[in-house]
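Why do we care about 3D structure at all? Because function follows from shape, and shape follows, mostly, from sequence. That is the central idea of this module. The next example makes it concrete: a single protein chain, its amino acid sequence, and then its structure expressed as tokens.
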Amino acid sequence: MTPAFEKLQKHLKQLPGLGFRSSERIALHLLVEKPERLPALVEALQEAARSVRRCLRCGNLAEGDLCGVCADARREGGVVCVVEQVPDLVAIERSGAYRGCYHVLHGKLSPIHGVGPGDLNFASLLGRVAGGEVHELILALSNDVEGEATCHYLTEQLAAAGRPVKVTRIGFGIPSGGGVLYADSITLKSALDGRRDYS
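And the structure:
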């Protein structure tokens, strides 16, 4: 194979879910089987890189200052579902079981991996609560040690700020050690309906 092919395959292999064989198959598909698709793909990647950014309010993907959820006046703005990553938000939206807003932390606390409070999107969430726009936080974080530690840290920060806000945790029909991303719609609906007080 050529150096350019190997470079393309190496970059594809760095994407989540792609190993050596998958990246090789995609590279061959784009270069040999369907080369006419390559310019459109390159253009779409460049356009996304130019225009997609984090929503200033919640951290979701947006092409302006606010994402589609935050800009939707029909959403219940006082209820905020806190998730770890954007794919978790997408999974909950797909369930159709929730009509509030979101806040994406972009991770969870993990001292062993060097992820502390300053690395996550806590400040803007605490700002939203301090501004009085939020009356309930639904914590939809993974049911593992790091997820629990993140929930505990957040409730401590809210208590220290002295802001009265209801804090609930989604019920878990989601298996221990699992996350929101891989749950089916029915499990996500049950988890949201069965959330418990975490205050």
